[in-house]
């Protein structure tokens, strides 16, 4: 993004100060603060930094570099260095996901990303899903401490990797912006997240403010800031996503969707923002099938049925080892269009030799023993199908309920922002075919990728966005989907592919007619 100066969350200032002497006996702290007053006004000087002033300032002959962080309303002095160190100005953006954690090292003079790494969250050893980890830590301080330490260890491994690949010490990064869901941020701080899941579902906190990284055990030289959450299921990762999507700045009506294990969605524009969230399930990440897997090497990621034959691609071009979320969506959409399944998702065994019965249950054999990479049959079963349709129904019902509560028809949505890894790799036509997304003109869809990470990066390189973060957190009206008395009956209607009301999906209806599936 060019080499121009940017308004990063931290500033570095080089000062040449007059030393004490000849009757000048002003304290070192006051000497430094006096030099900053004109540009920064009131500056907070931390006690920890006070211990560093002597002997650093005297040894540097009072030529020092100061690092300040913008808290939105004031500045805090967070680091002192000898000499002119303004050219070395670094920060970190982090997406703290329940499955994986991603981190960017950024040059805060230019905004350039110097390195990026991603690894699995070490919390997984205490449960594959969030709820398992919550129960593991509930009212057990030692267990909670173990989950927090696993989180910190994940951060430190990423810092070490970035240090290795870039040659820049983690101690030179004085600011880190962390974006994650409400539970993940509780775990990071070692706070029991149980209240998030117990009535009245209120988090222990929504804001963290600035925290010293070393107090949490994170091996950087400065502070971290966590994106604030709005509610139990609506966390800082969603606030980050909205910062990237910019709904709050636009006149057009936008819908932000992030569907994973949880589904989060926000509808609105610069005049209003209404959000809802709830559990969607692990199906979209390949987590429901015996042969389901994450989007890693060997995972089936796309499917086409041509002339009644199944054609697959896998990540890395390897023989298939299982199927990930995008592959499942393609598989179901293609089977629906070609009549291998009916509108309720039931298999039609007479339609293909690939539909087989195993242990009294039908399934589609997408790789036999000779075709797979592990010598085993790979099946997507009727049970898998049912679980996926439940997840799809929950996600699409949340969207429909949010729109109806505001009296908005699907076609009134002028821009639909799709966030998350699942949304990045999914085939849009397949997702609409099975009813996961509304049937809107395709040009209205915007794919944001990892908007949690990008939102953290956006704040890191532009401290002025702190005001926007605060406004987003305050302005969002949160709907409890669980409080909707007809939510279950709505979900039942959404269990059909794409829906019981075909008129809601005109392009799918046309495609089914073309295939002879509808009159």
UniProtKB/TrEMBL annotation:
Domain RACo-like middle region per the UniProt entry, residue ranges: 90-250
Domain RACo C-terminal: 252-509
Domain RACo linker region: from-to ranges: 5-85
Organism superkingdom: Bacteria
Annotated protein name in UniProt: ASKHA domain-containing protein
Lineage: Bacteria, Bacillati, Bacillota, Clostridia, Eubacteriales
